[in-house]
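Reopening this one. Same input as before:
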Amino acid sequence: GSALLHNVFDLPLHSEDAHRHFVPISNIRFESPLSYWDPDHHGRLVAGCEILFVAALSIHLYPAIVTWWAGVALVAINLVHVIGYVSFYLASGDTFQFDFVPED
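Same output, byte for byte:
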């Protein structure tokens, strides 16, 4: 079940690095205009939406956690996700740009 759900969400989020999701039925690769990581294919936006999605599900799941270590693990997963997002885009030089002031 989880592998099928992963493929459903994974299919529209690969551009040039598309997988062959339908092997052995077909070798076709669906190359989406979106990417979950590539800034040239809206990766910063898609990855940001992914972080928000994971955070929302974590908030929904947190009350059901019964052990302290599971709560720590859930928070740690979200922190690693955010740190990875920020460090990837800052390291790649694709930083956030807020150009509210027009250039001369």
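So the earlier flakiness isn't reproducible anymore. For the record, The two ends are 55 Å apart (CA to CA).
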